[in-house]
Amino acid sequence: MAGGGAYESSGVSIERGERAVRMMRAAVEGTHGPQVLGGAGGFAGLYALSGYREPVLASTVDGVGTKVLVARAVGRYRPLGEDLVNHCANDVLAVGARPLLFLDYLGTGRLEPEVAAELVEAMAGACSALGVALVGGETAEMPGLYAAGDFEIVGACVGACERGEVVTGEEVRPGDAVIGLASSGLHTNGYTLARSVVEDSGLSYADIPEGLNRPLGETYLEPHRPYLREVGALRSEVEVRGMAHITGGGIPGNLPRALGGFGAEVDPASWEEPPVFGFIRARGGIPEEEMRRVFNLGVGFCAVVPARQAERAVGVVREAGCAAWRIGTVVEGGGVRFVSS
């Protein structure tokens, strides 16, 4: 057998790929504004950057880890598309830039056009909500590298800001306040441990354990929260000296990146923790130190502001629609120390 037939028999279908692209096109092009030059399907996405005097580009790339396996078990893939966009956009926000454009990669053992379209439509929806253009992507069918039914998604986001708007943490000083912005749940980190707790407990994702008000699958798939609106409101009202997106590594692994070499004392009783973390802690017998280093525990983003502006900062975030608390204080030294009030 020759040509496309041989390729098909080896496990790669050009027709499935073309069908997936047709299904995605409208959603992708729906995110394009006048800055996007040309339509979908080019060799590279073109974006006209304008309106900046001293533009600085901020870029990031990330995935959703083994949350993919939860989605596959439940049969719901849309949350993963939202996760990917929101996670990457939050990383760009953390350095002071506004996310502008996004690209995605989907690698799979056997391309299912309907699943691919669901993922990309979700990404497009999340991009549109943030004013981000989905300018390109790649869908790769690779039997032998991925087993049938397996797939991985990765996203890259590019943002921009004026050079003077970059937030590096260099202005942070001891005594500054650490403001915590609420997460929506697990976000996109710690799923290998979170999944093992379900498996070791003999539960299914359809179960509703005590303390939760919906099935585990829905709880685990809650999309990663975006913070564009809240960060924009904060920066327009108060002096933001440092920002941290709380992802893998939790508060101890991420907050120090926003402190300019200083440390922080954080009170874990100062914020409201979503019940899913209590379930994981209790059912898995996970020590508190490990919980703090794996999960966000209810704080998905942190902002460092002068102490005199802490109360206003909390109010601004709440007015923008997200729960927030003053969770700590910047101190001399490095790292994060958890203290009790």
Description:
By secondary structure, the chain is an alpha+beta fold. It folds into two domains: 4-165, 60s Ribosomal Protein L30, Chain: A (2-Layer Sandwich), CATH 3.30.1330.10; 177-338, Phosphoribosyl-aminoimidazole Synthetase, Chain A, domain 2 (Alpha-Beta Complex). The protein has helices at residues 4-9, 14-29, 67-74, 78-93, 113-130, 191-200, 216-220, 228-237, 250-254, 275-284, 288-294, 310-319, and strands at residues 36-37, 46-47, 55-63, 98-108, 133-141, 151-162, 177-182, 242-245, 263-266, 299-305, 324-331, 336-338. A six-stranded mixed sheet has the order 8-10-7-11-9-12. Strands 3-6-4-5 form a four-stranded mixed sheet, with helices on one face. Strands 1-2 form a two-stranded antiparallel ribbon. A hairpin with an 8-residue loop joins β1 (36-37) and β2 (46-47).
Q: Helix segment count?
A: 12
CATH architecture field of the largest domain: 2-Layer Sandwich
The major β-sheet equals: 6 strands, mixed
Shape: globular
β-strand number = 12
CATH topology of the largest domain: 60s Ribosomal Protein L30, Chain: A
Number of domains: 2
Uncertain runs are: none
Strand-residue proportion: 15-25%
What Rg, in angstroms, do the CA atoms define?
Answer: 21 Å
Distance between the termini: 73 Å
CATH homologous superfamily label of the largest domain: PurM-like, N-terminal domain
- Strand/helix succession: HHEEEHHEHEEEHHHEHEHHEHEE
